[in-house]
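Note on ligand handling. Small-molecule inputs were canonicalized before submission; formal charges were left as drawn, and no protonation-state enumeration was performed. Where a ligand contained multiple stereocentres, the stereochemistry in the source SMILES was retained. For zinc ion, this procedure yielded the string shown in the input block below.
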Amino acid sequence: MRYIEPHAHMVSRTTSDYEALAYAGCKAVNEPAFWAGFDRSSGDGFYDYFRQITEYEPKRAAKFCIDHYCWLCINPKEAEDVGLAREVISIIPNFIPADNVLGIGEIGLNKNSKNELLILEEHIQLAADHDQMILVHTPHLEDKLKGTKLIVDALNNQSKIDPSKVIIDHVEEHTANIVLSNGYWAGMTLYPESKVTHNRAIDMLEMFGDENVWLNSACDWGISDPLSVPKAALEMRRRGYDDEYIDKIVYKNPVQFMSQSGKFKLH
Amino acid sequence: MKKTNLVDHGFMDARIKLIDVAAFLDRIQRHEQTDDYRFHALKDAINELQTDEVGRVGRILSKLSDHSVEPIDKADIQGAFGAPKPNNQ
Ligand SMILES: [Zn+2]
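Structure output:
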């Protein structure tokens, strides 16, 4: 089986995980910039992080014949500090030309605060100004519904944004339709406790359709499973879906979305 | 697509999860911690399990969501609790 892992924070995973991904058939990973589990104190911390995901991680992935792509931003958990967020946004254009950068992400909201929304809008403007695709993080648990609505409004308000070049990740049963009906792509995240199980993701494919969706693990420093996408594929097979359908969901759909950036090329 | 018997496939998993929820409610009650808003949010959401219309998951998620519409003034914490605080609605 071949597949793409379209949302993984490989900086916090071991090299053994790259090996496991390769054995499972992973051809490429997408690494959105995120919160590292603690707040960084300066723009320099982000400068080093952006170097890591544009220079170092692609080499680590290549050792296992996996292509590595990334997305740049200051994530919403650190966006409450507007001064720091603006400093980080100002260094992002230096990294956009890097070969493996597909866009701006994972931007979005966390607690749905005024400052988070302000910095989200500034990131959307940055993407519009530099003609970049966008990968969006939606808030957790009780904050997800409200945050998804605020995010969709903010994106709809920027006329230069093409919804087909934006993926809104971590959708659940109560938010998927808000995302898809507005023309955005929807990501379903297979993550313990705070997101969806394999079976719920497959249920959502049955309910909302198999177009403009992808599955991802969002594996990071937390309790998470870098192999959750191939495990969901096995669950699809057990439910009776054939290889062609599974290939569409775990390979062709992410390839279709990511190919909208001219930089995405599978080797 | 060949049709899998989804009851065969999922019943035991659903059964153990249901029993675990019941054990959780009993445990909270035995330890007299039922004044927590999350206990009541869960019990309220469980009512949806008894409805006959498809869409139980979405309705439960909606019940466990903050339905306010304005951004909050400031993010004082980074995490979430799984159910909206009663004064938040
Ligand atoms: Zn993430």
